[in-house]
Write a structure and sequence with these properties.
2 copies of one chain form a homodimer.
Chain A lengths: L1 E5 L7 H10 L4 E7 L18 E5 L2 E4 L3 H12 L6 E8 L11 H11 L4 E7 L6 H18 L5 E8 L9 E3 L5 E2 L5 E5 L5 E5 L5 E2 L6 H6 L3 E7 L5 H6 L1 H10 L3
Parallel strand pairs in A: 1-2, 1-5, 2-4, 5-6, 6-7, 8-13
Antiparallel strand pairs in A: 3-4, 7-13, 9-12, 10-11
Helix pairs in contact in A: 1-4, 2-3
Chain lengths: 255, 255
């Protein structure tokens, strides 16, 4: 089995190292990861500058680009064969609720899925004292399960793991993407020594809506959250309900 | 009516200027846009550096960040009131099929929707000789329609306009997100004057699957494509089908 590993915390993160070390016990592992932290890089793709690859060791490369670049370059350029699975992580911190759309880690799994490879992202919900060995072990179990059963086409898994020893994990839960409650005062304004204003995004910690079966709820219960996400963002309900707009818009242009 | 406008081509793009000028005939328009091109920035959010705002004129600001930063900063920090609508564009080039997930333009509308404001992105499908006045006019019609009817919560519109005079537009179509056929040779490898390799992503133009009602198909027919997209990326079908994984994973950790 060939597994391609990436992340958004950069190649020097202990999370990706724990992940690669553990997966090596069951597969040929290639690590292609950003040369530095690229958190919140989302699904950004580098189109306007050339990408450089640096070899770090056996099957280990860093790229001066985003997580999405790494997967694209890995599958389309570097690897001699298509990997069986793409695993992205282990992210330092959770990727829950609406935050998945900002996440470089989740986007790497998105890119793998786009390119036809079953993919999942693993994030470790903590701010310090990361028990990465728990997430790494869980990634291994999932890789084996995916190897055996594959994944529905166009679907990736967003996995979040609570910061517990594996014996204290309360179980696994297939979940839905939760919803953050946004803070009205999320911008922090400051003044620099030269009297000029500047701004920080994301000043305070936010809460989330108490939705049944959400990723947030599973983590709060000490469970591993596995959310299947889709590439197709179409809201099919609205495709139907907005059909009536076609004729009013057509009228505006004389049709 | 207050409209917040952004884009990913940067504040100096003629696309955003045409859009703002046209929308000004029906609303108070605020332009908050990246200070330079940020194509394929996706839903990236700047967390690790401070953001600077530069005033360019009445209600017009540039930010040294991504389209998502601009909307976040605009709604949470700069504007005195919540805008009625967020419009992102006019993008130089289409945002069709899976490309929407890479797009900074679409992500700005995503961010507006996340923050509770009805939002849409407008992209002009051309590579040169952009007839932006067509897209601007269509954005105006849509803004009026949204003001009147609002949008379902959690749903944004991804609008793509063919490069035609408005009288030659064949009509409006509510569509679904199409699917690219990916090129196996999408990476271009080059060697620099010092003998070191480098890579470009996205070497060649790609085709798309002939799906009925897709955004690609509408554009090919000379129609304006309007795709409703959702914030919730959960694949609910797979939430059900993957439930059986819970027990096999639980067994692995002795539950």
């Amino acid at each position: 089995m060939v597994i391609l590993v990436s992340n958004d915390d950069g190649i020097h993160s202990p999370g990706i190292q724990a992940l690669a070390d553990t997966l090596r016990t069951i597969a040929d592992v290639y690590v292609i990861a950003p040369d530095r932290e690229r958190s919140a890089a989302s699904h950004a793709l580098t189109l306007h500058k050339p990408l450089r690859l640096e070899k770090f060791g056996d099957n280990m490369y860093s790229v001066n680009g985003t997580p999405t670049d790494c997967i694209n370059l890995g599958i389309n350029g570097i690897l001699n064969e298509k990997p069986d699975i793409v695993v992205s992580g282990i992210n330092k911190g959770g990727n829950l609720g609406d935050d998945v759309t900002y996440s470089g880690t989740v986007s790497a799994a998105f890119e793998g899925t786009l390119l036809g490879v079953p993919s999942f992202a693993v994030s470790h919900v903590a701010e310090s004292d990361f028990k990465f060995e728990t997430s790494a072990r869980i990634a291994l179990y999932l890789a084996l399960l995916i190897k055996e059963n594959s994944l529905p086409p166009g679907v990736l898994l967003n996995v979040n793991v609570p910061n517990l020893d594996i014996k204290d994990i309360k179980g696994f839960k297939i979940t839905r993407q939760g919803k953050r409650i946004y803070d009205e005062n999320a911008i922090v304004e400051k003044v620099d020594p030269r009297g000029k204003k500047y701004y920080w995004i994301g000043g305070s910690r936010l809460s989330w809506e108490k939705t049944e079966d959400s990723d947030f709820a599973a983590i709060e219960e000490g469970m591993v959250s596995i959310t299947p996400l889709r590439l197709d963002l179409t809201e099919y309900g609205a495709v139907k309900s907005l059909r009536i707009w076609e004729s009013s818009l057509n009228k505006k242009i004389g049709i």
